[in-house]
């Protein structure tokens, strides 16, 4: 039977990761502390210092990520003095200088964001999930995240026009084209880069948790069973929980001892539940 490892460590990820060899992980997925936020909780970093602080860590992430691995960074710039701060944009540019490729940007649409009113903006219902890679050739298992086509397709495919049975190039000259008749008989399609997940904060004792579906989705897309996943800002342990359930090895790091305890407890519960269900890994 093949054993799974879930290693949850306490400390600053910058220091903890120094003990890991180069090219250790297939996927790094994380949601770091946001600039200036939760200062009373785990030490916010001011927006102006954020890039400098984060770059020291992304350098380590680069070293421990395998050449064909992926780094998913969930982040959103806050509004400072009436405008959006530019630290996320600056971070992307600086990370490219470190050697990262900014391959893609997913939007996490928070289906259940809180209603609210501000004088100059609407409620914030989305966050970025930035995708970085070390090389243009990275592991990606697209079939693992396919979605049902939906009922609209039945009507659309009932009667095909002459442009539907050939590859029809977009009139806009964008270079995009499609052959609608290829969809006949298919139930599943590839998803878009907008992800719809409801936030989950209840009974987790951590104020900024991932919905489990979020790390699950990226783990399925970028890793296979027994690959290695890292969350260097683990929080309540959601990434390690999702990794374990999907039979991936994982390492999680957090600087706050209570969060580390919470994450360890959560993973133990998941292990126990899966054993109870008689699901033995091998
Ligand atoms: C936004 S939360 C992550 C939440 C997590 N995605 C979850 O689902 O619970 C960020 C976490 O980073 C931790 N943290 C802050 N600075 C850190 C550092 N230098 N090294 C490791 N963890 C750190 C905080 O304690 C906090 O739990």
What does this protein structure show overall?
There is one protein chain. By secondary structure, the chain is of the alpha/beta class. It folds into two domains: 6-146 and 190-276, Rossmann fold (3-Layer(aba) Sandwich), CATH 3.40.50.150; 148-189, no CATH class. It is 29% helix and 23% strand. The chain has eight helices and 14 strands. It has helices spanning 13-16, 39-42, 47-64, 87-98, 152-158, 213-222, 238-245, 257-276; strands at 6-10, 25-30, 65-75, 79-80, 83-84, 101-110, 126-133, 147-148, 168-169, 177-178, 188-189, 194-197, 228-231, 249-254. It has an eight-stranded mixed beta sheet. A two-stranded antiparallel ribbon has the order 4-5. Strands 8-11 form a two-stranded antiparallel ribbon. Strand 13, helix 7 (238-245) and strand 14 form a beta-alpha-beta unit. It is globular. 30% of the residues are buried. The model has no long low-confidence stretch (mean pLDDT 89). The protein binds S-adenosylmethionine (SAM). Residues 12-13, 31-33, 42, 206, 208-210, 232-233, 235-236, 238, 253-256, 259 line the site of S-adenosylmethionine. S-adenosylmethionine binds next to strand 14.
Q: Alpha-carbon distance between the termini?
A: 4 Å
Q: Determine the mean pLDDT.
A: 89
Task: Please write the string of helix (H) and strand (E) elements.
Answer: EHEHHEEEHEEEHEEEEHEHEH
> How do the strands of the widest beta sheet line up side by side?
1-14-13-2-3-7-6-12
Give the class from helix and strand content and strand pairing. Answer: alpha/beta
The CATH superfamily of the largest domain is known as Vaccinia Virus protein VP39
Number of separate strands: 14
Strand content: 15-25%
Radius of gyration: 21 Å
Shape: globular
Q: Which CATH C-level class of the largest domain is it?
A: Alpha Beta
Number of domains: 2
């Amino acid at each position: 039977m093949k054993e799974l490892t879930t290693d949850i460590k306490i400390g600053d990820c910058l220091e903890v990761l120094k003990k890991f060899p180069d090219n250790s992980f297939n996927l790094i997925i994380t949601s770091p502390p946001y600039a200036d936020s939760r200062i009373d909780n785990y030490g916010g970093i001011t927006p102006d210092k954020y890039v400098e602080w984060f770059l020291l860590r992304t350098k380590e992430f680069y070293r421990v990520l395998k050449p064909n691995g992926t780094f998913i960074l969930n982040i959103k710039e806050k509004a400072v003095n009436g405008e959006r701060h530019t630290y996320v944009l600056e971070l992307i540019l600086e990370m490219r200088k470190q050697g990262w490729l900014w391959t893609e940007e997913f939007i996490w649409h928070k289906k259940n964001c809180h209603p609210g009113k501000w004088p100059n903006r609407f409620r914030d219902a989305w966050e970025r999930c930035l995708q970085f890679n070390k090389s243009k050739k990275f592991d990606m298992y697209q079939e693992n995240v396919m979605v049902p086509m939906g009922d609209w397709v039945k009507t659309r495919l009932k009667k095909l026009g002459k442009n539907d049975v050939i590859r029809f190039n977009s009139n806009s000259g964008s270079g995009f084209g499609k052959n609608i008749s290829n969809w006949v008989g298919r139930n599943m399609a590839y998803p878009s880069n907008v992800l719809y997940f409801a936030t989950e904060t209840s009974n987790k004792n951590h104020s900024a948790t991932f919905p489990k579906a979020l790390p699950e989705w990226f783990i399925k897309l970028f890793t296979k069973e027994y690959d290695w996943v890292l969350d260097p800002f683990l929080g309540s342990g959601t990434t390690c929980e999702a990794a374990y359930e999907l039979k991936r090895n994982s390492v999680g790091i957090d600087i706050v001892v209570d969060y580390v305890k919470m994450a360890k407890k959560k993973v133990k519960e998941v292990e126990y539940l899966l054993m109870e269900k008689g699901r033995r890994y091998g």
